[in-house]
Design brief:
Bound molecules: 1-O-phosphono-alpha-D-glucopyranose
Order of helices and strands: EEEHEHHHEHHEEHEEEEHHEEHH
Number of domains: 1
Strand order of the largest sheet: 5-4-1-6-11-8-12-10-9
Helix content: 25-40%
CATH superfamily: Spore Coat Polysaccharide Biosynthesis Protein SpsA, Chain A
CATH class: Alpha Beta
Low-confidence stretches: none
CATH topology: Spore Coat Polysaccharide Biosynthesis Protein SpsA, Chain A
CATH architecture: Alpha-Beta Complex
Structural class: alpha/beta
Largest sheet: 9 strands, mixed
Amino acid sequence: MIKNAVVPVAGHGTRLLPATKSQPKEMLPVGKKPIVQYVVEELARAGCEQILFVTGRGKYSIENHFDHNPELAESLRRATKDNLLDELSFENIKINYLYTRQTVQRGLGDAILCGEPFVGREPFVVALGDSIIGLRGDSSICNRLSEVYKDTQAAAVIAIEQVEPDQVSSYGVVKPETEDEEVFEISDVIEKPTPSEAPSNFVVSGRYVFSPVIFDLLRLVEADANQEIQITDAIRMLCKSGERVMGVKLPVGEKRYDIGNFDSYFSTFLEFALADPLHGPELRRKLVKLL
Ligand code: G1P
């Protein structure tokens, strides 16, 4: 299994203002947990041993969240609130956390490049810190990406989902060699194309496995009109240079929860809250009354 993961969490979350004025969007709760906790739990289940968070200004609460808080644990123990103590069990996840800063906001590609000294010449996972995969975050997509990486000797393996054709302009969109297989070769990828430019409706879905060769290409990528270095452009170079780039479809019933704006945040929160075994049934009754 691939042991290192890079989790970019440097974005400002401007589409979620005012909620994100002084807290990271990755710390917004979805159901009972902050978004980034689902991501870390997913990576731990996939066998990752070290996570590098690429942070920015105002992201301290992420570091605090994954740190032990012995005073809080002790006061819960004294008050015999063991059920609440259980809610802190994620503090014991066997992951070594590291943090680095992307000092200037120069896009996702630049954030991933910040991981080079951490990753060295090993393959690594990238998991976007603002995306949950699967209801309850129980996806095993990173294991699947790692297996395909090993089996196909690809330089990049990307989780893919199918979206409505009018949604493609929010994503990196790939050109698949075949459309019917679960695993397929990718011959091109374009960042946020118009629907008429899009090569398909198969989109890049927030989880990747890369060979370290991606760093060499990221250094060659030119900034786009927004002064951002796009990871998509480096993947495109991989395709053009004859390296193998593979896509793996998210399993049926497993979708990506995008928390980038209030429409998707509200509906994601609701779906997760309704799926909560303790609070979901009562929420459902209340909602039925409200509607
Ligand atoms: C980023 C990537 C894009 C990808 C999307 C969802 O875009 O640049 O290729 O499809 O994440 O994983 P963002 O949502 O940060 O604009």
